[in-house]
Amino acid sequence: MLSFFAVLLWAVFWFALSDIPSRILSAAQNKVIALTADAGFSVRNILVEGRVNTDPDILKAIINLEKGDPLFSFSPDAAQQMIQKISWVKNVHVERRLPDTVYVQIEERRPLALWQREGKLHLIDEEGIVLSEQDLTPFKNLIVLVGDDVPYHVREFMDILFSEPLVRERVASAVRIGKRRWDLHLASGAIAKLPEDDAVIALRRLSMAQEEEKLLDKEVQTIDVREVDRVVVRTAPGAVREYKAGYKSQSGI
Question: Considering the entire predicted model, what is its pTM?
Answer without folding.
Answer: 0.79
